[in-house]
Amino acid sequence: MDDSSIDAARTLADPVRRRLYEYVAQSGEVGRAQAAEALGIQRTLAAHHLDRLADAGLLEVSLRKVSGREGPGSGRPAKLYRRSAGELSLHLPPRDYELAAHVLAEAVERHGAEESLHAAAREEGRRIGAGHRGEPLDELLRARGYEPGEGVEDDAGDGAVRLRNCPFHTLARAFPPLACGLNLELLRGMLEGRGEDGERARMDARPDRCCVVISKNNER
Question: Pfam families, per this entry (predicted)?
Answer without folding.
Answer: HTH_20 (PF12840)
